TrEMBL record:
SMART domains: CRAL_TRIO_N, SEC14. It comes from the Eukaryota. This is Predicted protein. One of its GO terms (molecular function) is phosphatidylinositol transfer activity. InterPro entries: CRAL-TRIO_dom, CRAL-TRIO_dom_sf, CRAL/TRIO_N_dom, CRAL/TRIO_N_dom_sf, PI_Transfer_CRAL-TRIO. Pfam families: CRAL_TRIO, CRAL_TRIO_N. SUPFAM superfamilies: CRAL/TRIO domain (SSF52087), CRAL/TRIO N-terminal domain (SSF46938). Gene3D superfamilies: CRAL-TRIO lipid binding domain. PROSITE patterns: CRAL_TRIO (PS50191). Residues 78-252 form the CRAL-TRIO domain.
Length: 276
């Protein structure tokens, strides 16, 4: 970080301290206090062009949201039903070491708004969680942010308007990504969207902020140039399934997925206990 950026970070930390003294609920729990490490504050500053007041307003909104939803307390047991079809999972990292969150809306198994949002938050927390978060250094504007980013790969194979989530769910999904996980999305790859997707895209795109919009890429598997571009982004042999042009068996192993999530939940619980 530059000296000016470090100064902004110190100002932000001071502003947050004053805000929490005026409203103790902002940092009322160990989880909330752990959340606001220096790396987190730097992300909010970058998201608001290093404007401390704007960053504080955004962070305050997130802290209130996290106090209500308690995303750090959601476990696999809470979302097992929504996750049982493999509609979201983290198969590994991309070529830059960024976690890849795969979404397969064609495997949607529920239209229940609260449950789907809870599962989304669980997966975003999983994809961005760091055991050493409090020690992770804050990153300035010019730094390589790969260690903090994730890539979302959305496979639209089998997607129809009937399986599309309600507009309420889609809008809240965007809000969560844009408002509460700032500076986390590196790129969102939309793979094989059908022609009818244009109807849904026209309805949802006005709610996508310009920064997020510029990070969205569309890949048509019938276009060799687009597939080569996708191949340059991902480890097609070890991470991407064969039905998306890779070499991994696309069969979803629920038992393995559940065991992986339960293990992570147990470790997160251990780490969070140390914060109390």
């Amino acid at each position: 970080m530059t000296e000016l950026e470090l100064q902004k970070l110190r100002e932000f930390r001071g502003a947050l301290k004053r805000a929490s003294e005026e409203n103790p609920e902002l940092l009322a729990t160990p989880a909330l206090r752990r959340f606001v490490n220096d790396a987190c504050l730097a992300r909010y500053l970058r998201a608001r062009n290093w404007k401390v007041k704007k960053a504080l307003k955004m962070l305050t909104h997130t802290l209130k949201w996290r106090a209500r939803t308690r995303p750090d307390s959601i476990t696999w047991r809470d979302v097992a039903k929504e996750g049982s079809t493999g509609k979201q999972y983290v198969p590994g990292v991309d070529v830059k070491g960024r976690n890849v969150l795969v979404m397969r809306p064609g495997r949607e198994n529920s239209k229940e708004h609260a449950g789907n949002i809870r599962f989304l938050v669980y997966m975003l927390e999983k994809a961005t969680w760091r055991e050493d978060a409090p020690e992770h250094p804050p990153l300035g504007q010019a730094a390589d942010h790969s260690s903090e980013k994730l890539v979302i790969l959305i496979d639209f194979s089998g997607w129809t308007l009937s399986t599309a989530p309600p507009m309420k769910t889609s809008k809240e999904t965007l809000s969560i990504l844009q408002d509460h996980f700032p500076e986390r999305l590196a790129v969102a790859v939309c793979y094989n969207p059908p022609w009818i997707f244009a109807v849904f895209w026209k309805a949802i795109s006005p709610f996508i902020d310009p920064v997020t919009y510029r990070k969205i890429r569309f890949v048509n598997p019938k276009r060799e140039k687009e597939m080569k571009r996708m191949g340059a982004m991902f480890d097609m042999k070890n991470v991407i399934e064969s039905d998306m042009g890779g070499e991994v068996d696309p069969t979803f192993d629920l038992a393995k997925f559940a065991a992986e999530n339960n293990a992570l939940d147990a470790r997160r619980k251990e780490v969070m206990a140390l914060c109390e």
